[in-house]
Write a structure and sequence with these properties.
Strand content: 5-15%
CATH architecture of the largest domain: 3-Layer(aba) Sandwich
CATH class of the largest domain: Alpha Beta
Oligomer: single chain
Shape: elongated
Radius of gyration: 25 Å
Distance between the termini: 29 Å
Strand order of the largest sheet: 2-1-4-7-6
CATH topology of the largest domain: Collagenase (Catalytic Domain)
Number of strands: 7
Number of helices: 14
Structural class: alpha/beta
Largest sheet: 5 strands, mixed
Number of domains: 2
CATH superfamily of the largest domain: Collagenase (Catalytic Domain)
């Protein structure tokens, strides 16, 4: 994907706006350490800069990580960076952990790191700037490895070891030769930094086709089944509609009489509409630079998001279908199915399959309208932030 230098941005984002906890000094020292380690890869260039903290409102447990991801996407696109690591001083809320040290988003090539938990507040460690800077640099290297799809390493002295508590960072001191080789291999594929010039639509289509493996990997990493479990309002809305429909004679009439082509068109249209509604609700904006250029990484992120939502809807379609087939088999007596429809036999296997497909499609379509009301932050966390540290 790239031929020349690959820029890694280190962005200090001081939300409090008063250089809390010596954020500038820590970030500067950590960036120097980070640069020394990755200089083994000659294509990498580190670019550090400061972003004036935005007016972000904290939730009960802290600031939302995905607010920082959206800021990171915007800055990464505008500055034409391949990767961006954001360092902030405020608490970042974690959906599944008691607190969050960092959150590398592999789909967006943006990582967020908080210095708030690098040491216990009030402890002697927090006053040791050398120790704090080393921990921050180690966390930067760990996140950068995750952005490059390096796997976790069992050796506790490795930068890719799993981090349970901040003190674990003190033992992490090296990448193996194999990991550096893997970095070199992954860099061209992961450093999406091409930008559109004139025809934006053609650029999007071209980059989508060129990045199909990465898009599929990103969608599968999001785990469509897990996304489905985060959409309770969608599931409840869908079941409410299809349970009412299955007890209506007109539904059985339509299913028994509709042709395979008509049903296929209805199912396809339902999927397109439902995916569009959910994508508008949960995706990040496909941002462009001030000059109207769209980045390759934005295209990959948008395509992976869309594919993940399509796969989620397929999972729900199958779930609704199996559930309705069970209702047809075990709830409705055969004499009723034979006589309920006007001029077709509703008890045949073909009629059952058409009924199940129709109801599942209605469930997906109606559920998407309710699903868009589900928590945007919860679903976005599953899509864009599956790797909490």
């Amino acid at each position: 994907m790239v031929d020349g230098n690959i820029e890694v941005g280190i962005m200090k984002l001081d939300v409090a706006g008063r250089d809390a906890r010596s954020l500038s000094e820590l970030t500067h020292l950590a960036t120097e350490h980070f640069s020394r380690v990755i200089q083994r890869e000659p294509r990498l260039r580190v670019k550090s800069f400061t972003f004036a903290g935005p007016h972000l409102a904290p939730e009960r447990d802290g600031y939302r990580a995905l607010d920082f991801v959206q800021i990171g996407i915007n800055e990464k696109t505008e500055r034409q960076l391949a990767f961006l690591i954001i360092v902030t001083e405020v608490e970042i809320a974690a959906p599944t952990l008691s607190y969050l040290l960092a959150l590398p988003s592999q789909l967006t090539n943006v990582a967020i790191i908080s210095t708030r938990r690098l040491a216990d507040f009030g402890s002697k460690e927090i006053k040791d700037h050398s120790l704090m800077a080393d921990r921050l640099a180690t966390l930067m290297l760990h996140c950068f490895g995750r952005l490059l799809n390096l796997n976790y390493h069992p050796e506790r002295t490795n930068y890719m070891a799993r981090i349970e508590v901040p003190a674990d960072l003190d033992r992490m001191r090296q990448f193996t030769d194999g990991q550096f080789a893997r970095m070199a291999t992954n860099l061209p594929a992961e450093a999406n930094d091409r930008y559109s010039k004139e025809n934006r639509a053609a650029f999007i289509l071209r980059q989508t086709a060129a990045n199909i493996p990465r898009i599929v990997r990103g969608a599968l990493r999001a785990n469509p089944l897990r996304i489905a479990t985060k959409l309770p309002t969608m599931i409840a809305t869908a079941l409410s509609v299809i349970i009412i429909l299955i007890f209506g004679g007109e539904t059985w009439d339509f299913s028994a009489s509709a042709s395979a082509g008509q049903l296929a068109v209805f199912v396809g249209a339902s999927f397109v509409t439902a995916t569009f509604v959910l994508y508008r609700a949960f995706s990040f904006k496909l941002v462009s630079t001030r000059h109207g250029k769209t980045s390759e990484s934005s295209v990959v992120t948008a395509a992976a998001t869309y594919l993940a939502l399509v796969l989620t809807l397929i999972c729900l379609f199958v779930l609704f279908g199996l559930l309705m087939y069970g209702v047809v088999l075990f709830v409705f007596p055969d004499p009723l199915m034979s006589t309920w429809t006007s001029d077709k036999d509703g008890s045949s296997f073909g009629a059952h399959m058409r009924l199940v497909a129709f109801l599942a499609a209605v469930g997906v379509l109606s559920g998407s309208l309710g699903g868009s009301a589900d928590s945007r932050s919860v679903v976005r966390n599953v899509l864009f932030a599956v790797d909490e540290t």
